[in-house]
Amino acid sequence: MDSNARGLEQKDGVSPLVDTTVTVVLPRALLGLFPDAPRELSVEAQTVCEMIAQLDARWPGMRDRLQDSTPAVRRHINVFVGGRRATLETALRDGLKVYVLTAISGG
Fold first, then answer.
1. What's the whole-model pTM score?
2. For the domain that residue 49 is a member of, what is the CATH number?
3. β-pairing, 97-102 with 77-81?
4. Residue 107 maps to a domain
């Protein structure tokens, strides 16, 4: 399967998309901070960055938990699109599932 079929291409290599709805699966750790946020929800977005903006519009402060000021996905957060790790610029395709996971670290 090529990267186009998985929706993994970067935004500057993709023509504009319309009506792109993805299913976002949020980590349970994040739900503790946003108790009214569901574990799984549909979002209209063309990139991971737009997806995070949509989440932040519904639950103010969520962007700060997922994205740093550089901007990039926070160090201890992983976003997976089509089974592969994604960046803010990763393009989304209609019908994909996007998993947001918290990294576990320690010693």
1. 0.81
2. 3.10.20.30
3. antiparallel
4. no
Helix (H, G, I), strand (E, B) or coil at 28: helix
pLDDT band at residue 103 using 50, 70 and 90 as cut-offs: confident
Q: What is the mean pLDDT of residues 51-63?
A: 98
pLDDT the model gives residue 19: 76
Residue 37 to residue 47: CA distance in whole angstroms = 20
Q: Evaluate if residue 15 carries a pLDDT over 70.
A: no
Q: Which domain holds residue 41?
A: 3-102
How many alpha carbons fall within 13 Å on the CB side of residue 103? 13
And the tokens for 2?
A: 């090529």
Backbone phi, then psi, for 68, in 5-degree steps? -95, -175
Residue carrying structure tokens 């790790």: 85
Task: Tell me the C-alpha to C-alpha distance, in Å, between residue 50 and each of 54, 105, 107.
Answer: 6, 28, 35
